[in-house]
Amino acid sequence: MYLHCFLPLLCLGLAITASGQDEDASASAPDAHASGLLGTQSRLFPPLPFRPHLPFRSRPKRPLPIPIPRPGFGGQSVDADMDDDEDGPHTSFVRCGPDFGACGEGQCCSAQGYCGQSPSYCQAPDCLIDYSTSCDAQKSPVGDDTSLISRPHIGDVPYGYTPVYSCTEPKTVALTYDDGPMGYTGDLLDLLDAYDAKATFFVTGINSNKGQIDDPSFPWLKMIQRMFRTGHQIASHTWSHQTLDQLTQAQRYDQMIKNEIAFRNVIGGIPTYMRPPYSSCDSDCAGDMDDMGYHIVYFDVDTDDYNNDTPEDIQQSKDIFDNALKLNKATGRPLLVIAHDVHEQTVYNLTAHMLKRIRTAKYRPVTLGECLGDSKMNWYRWEKPPVKDKAMNEETSISGSKPISPDGTCGTKYTCLGSVFGDCCSGYGYCGNSTLYCGSGCLASAGSCSLGDEQPSKNATFLRYRWQTPR
Ligand SMILES: [Zn+2]
């Protein structure tokens, strides 16, 4: 949804020529992606019509409730938005950026290349992280890093190098919402509840000057917990919505790991699904996502909602959705739909329309995992699983020979010893190799409890090394 370019003509060109699969992009997605699952997952169903990408041109016109920031605020002209800043552009003439170098300590380099400290300079994703020390993108959630969480490629949905473009379960629609949560997201959850519909949220940790998602002084933390509690799926849209292709490998890890720490602070676990901002993730990026155990998810129905955020224009997004449903209804081909919960018309107009049409067509509005036939157990990785009653008091049970855990759970039924998930069974009934599994509360009846014998998986060691080694 953000355009984040210095050269308007180049941006416009990229936007126009970007693939129809690339709605969230300011740059075209690599061809490797376009030839990925489109060629495999769509085999059962006829392809959707190609739809050219249109240039960004609008944002919400009505003011939002204070102090919630305006949704979709990103990539905008600083001049147009700085009147209320204590150090607006007219008070800052210190230049920064590729031609001028970095700002001083504690300063932020704005998208237009001026140093300052107010939100308009520091907000993500526009603040130039290579020339700043205090961009929102450079803030970190509190807590241990998550890179030692075991990351086996569980389930049948492909990871990393093979992105997901389409759902597989017939007669399902996966509505996915990017860039939130933000001011309208609570109302969206009410709406989904009213229709008994489930959706997927690709959450960004600190974009658009909204504060951190794990900061309890903002509403986002409770909103995400509500999503989780009520059966929606939570996925990662990176910490601060940078273009992953344009980052170093260390910066890419930083983008994912910091969002993971925040997720862990909010729901106790980290997602296995992610969507790259601007749909931009080249083969290096895909390799990193593969290493980190992420499914890369795009979409096959682009509502173009961020270009249609007026009561009149949103009809175009409705038409896109209606046409996709009409085209595929006969075969039952499922739809993977992208929208953005940061836009007013998406929440208060388009979503109800889509839900009504889904119901009329006898499709089901489900989460991404459900539309891919992926077990809910595979949607997250846990340090402290939310279900705590599974294996409590297990220590006292009589240990016998148990089958090796096929799914990462352990306790009365399975042992972790010899499993691909790790040899220790945590007090919460999940297998792993770190102190969280092998230390206090570890169930000796369902695996090893000796950390000395167990080393973190090669993958985890690799991740830690790579994340902490700037390049
Ligand atoms: Zn986005």
Task: Describe what you observe in this structure.
The chain is an alpha/beta fold. The protein has helices at 8-17, 31-34, 78-81, 119-122, 185-194, 220-229, 249-267, 283-291, 314-328, 344-360, 368-371, 435-438, 458-467; strands at residues 108-109, 115-116, 172-178, 200-203, 233-236, 269-271, 273-274, 295-296, 301-302, 335-340, 364-366, 380-382, 424-425, 431-432. It has two domains: 1-73 and 140-383, Glycoside hydrolase/deacetylase (TIM Barrel, Alpha-Beta Barrel), CATH 3.20.20; 387-471, no CATH class. The strands form five sheets. Strands 3, 4, 5, 9, 10 and 11 form a six-stranded parallel sheet that branches. Mean pLDDT is 78; it is low at 1-44, 46-90, 385-400 and 452-471. Bound molecules: zinc ion. InterPro entries: Chitin-bd_1, Chitin-binding_1_CS, Endochitinase-like_sf, Glyco_hydro/deAcase_b/a-brl, NODB_dom. This is Chitin deacetylase. Its cofactor is Co(2+).
CATH class of the largest domain: Alpha Beta
Number of domains: 2
Distance from N terminus to C terminus (CA atoms, Å) equals: 28 Å
How many beta strands in the DSSP annotation? Answer: 14
The shape, in one word, is globular
* Spans where pLDDT lies below 50 across 5 or more residues: 1-44, 46-90, 385-400, 452-471
Q: Please state the structural category.
A: alpha/beta
Succession of helices and strands: HHHEEHEHEHEHEEHEEHEHEHEEEHH
CATH topology of the largest domain: the name is TIM Barrel
Name the helicity range. Answer: 25-40%
Count of discrete alpha- or pi-helical segments spanning 4 or more residues: 13
Largest sheet: 6 strands, parallel
Specify Rg, calculated over alpha carbons: 23 Å
CATH superfamily of the largest domain: Glycoside hydrolase/deacetylase
Average of per-residue pLDDT values? 78
